[in-house]
Amino acid sequence: MNIYVGNMAYSMTEDELRDLFSNYGTVSSARLVTDRDTGRAKGFGFVEMADANEANAAIEAINGTKQGGRELVVNEARPREERPRREGGFGGGNRGFGGGRRF
């Protein structure tokens, strides 16, 4: 089961996240989401536990508890919604630099 963990202290590490959940069962993985540009934690992450009963026990026990001065939000992760791709660059297509007729 994939578990969402939000409102985490930015200083929390993946090892601390894993340790917190391992009190309730076997943790398959623990991952913090980081900013792609800075590499800093964004304050949320995901924990994967193979046993649904252990995962539910962890959610019940940890949700709403304070860690690092912040009250954690813990629940079953929802599937990621597909978002439309953003067109990058400088306006893309025929817009932007140049565009229009040249004389």
Rounded mean pLDDT score? 88
Topology, number of strands? 6
CATH class: Alpha Beta
From the 3D structure, determine the CATH topology.
Alpha-Beta Plaits
For CATH, the homologous superfamily is named as RRM (RNA recognition motif) domain
Strand content: 25-35%
Q: Into which percent range does the helicity of residues fall? A: 10-25%
Shape: globular
- End-to-end distance, in Å? 63 Å
Please identify, by name, the CATH architecture. Answer: 2-Layer Sandwich
Query: What class do helices, strands and sheet pairing give?
Result: alpha+beta
User: What summary fits the major beta sheet?
Assistant: 4 strands, antiparallel
What are the low-pLDDT stretches, counting only 5+ consecutive residues below 50? Answer: none
Q: Specify Rg, calculated over alpha carbons.
A: 20 Å
Element pattern in H and E: EHEEHEEE
Main β-sheet, spatial strand arrangement: 2-3-1-6
Count of structural domains: 1
Describe the structure.
The protein is α+β, with helices and mostly antiparallel strands and 103 residues long. The chain has a single domain (2-76), classed as RRM (RNA recognition motif) domain (Alpha-Beta Plaits, 2-Layer Sandwich), CATH 3.30.70.330. 19% of the residues lie in helices and 29% in strands. The strands form two sheets. Strands 2-3-1-6 form a four-stranded antiparallel sheet, with helices on one face. Strands 4-5 form a two-stranded antiparallel sheet. A hairpin with a 6-residue loop joins strand 2 (27-34) and strand 3. The termini are far apart. The mean pLDDT is 88.
